[in-house]
């Protein structure tokens, strides 16, 4: 969202950005006006703890309920209050929110005049469809099935109490209940800007006309930083495996980074582990062929990478695909099972269907991807689709059209 705001500013627009206090300095550095959200308006990942051996579907159901409560319900009223306060100042021509900023829902349900609202799909498309399984289960669609009744059962039975809880919360700020299921709320907006290419989404015959595929918003080339001492090891002599847990779900590095380092310790490859924060792996998970770093710009590293192992962050997955790098995805929180399923569906990688894969599963997946050229071929096809997209131009154009239409 910061990149989008900065680009709009470069195009001559005045941009005010609501965000968590931790990001306000970066917002100001980008030349934007920063408005800090109160703590209650900032969504946090739920604290999940499940017994071992819990069935996969039951785990997904419990995770989905926890995610909706922590991301969509808990911060809603505080977000809406902050948004209303921001709209009470200078006139606003348009409101751009990410898909988790549910504080915009009361604005969309209200009867008062409002500026156009555009939602940025910073995760996989979560709108319900007769052509795809319920969002969150991490299933790939089958062309001979219709999922209308399955979606209805999930919405009206399995998540009915969560939907009622959301509507009770809405009563304090909106004149009516949400007329769609919670994950379909972007349908109320003037546009849904989906930050991917159509080829990375499931085909849908019932896709809303308000959905615009923009392509991903990816970081630009990095300023030349001080490279790690081991950078010359990227000499092409052996396969390079990148493993990361991103920045959202990286408190326990032994979920994915540790097992990967151990699994590949005796393999003829170079393992690059990016922790996303200042952290160190214990000696028991270190290996001679592993290089651990807090952060390294993907724009510099990705051209050397042969396969990326990730827990499924949307941005990191798209950066790999933009570079034609195949993926191995191990994610079971938030929207990560859905991202993993899309990677497998497109043929660009392997979905391990767990957030804590075994060392054996990781090693086998790496061998499969490195020895099966079809994975890289699929990733390269997607890289061409991404290269043909122009996300920031499309966003600016769509924003201007929406403002002109309602202005």
From TrEMBL:
Record Pfam families: EryCIII-like_C
Superkingdom of origin organism: Bacteria
GO terms under biological process: antibiotic biosynthetic process; glycolipid biosynthetic process
UniProt-listed SUPFAM superfamilies: UDP-Glycosyltransferase/glycogen phosphorylase (SSF53756)
Family annotation (CDD domains): GT1_Gtf-like (cd03784)
InterPro entries documented for this protein: EryCIII-like_C, Glycosyltransferase_28, UDP_glucos_trans
Native source organism of the sequence: Antrihabitans stalactiti
Gene3D superfamilies per UniProt: Glycogen Phosphorylase B
Sequence ranges assigned to domain Erythromycin biosynthesis protein CIII-like C-terminal in this UniProt record: 263-396
UniProt KW keywords: Transferase
The name this protein goes by in its record: Glycosyltransferase
GO molecular function annotations of the record: hexosyltransferase activity; UDP-glycosyltransferase activity
GO cellular component terms, A-Z: membrane
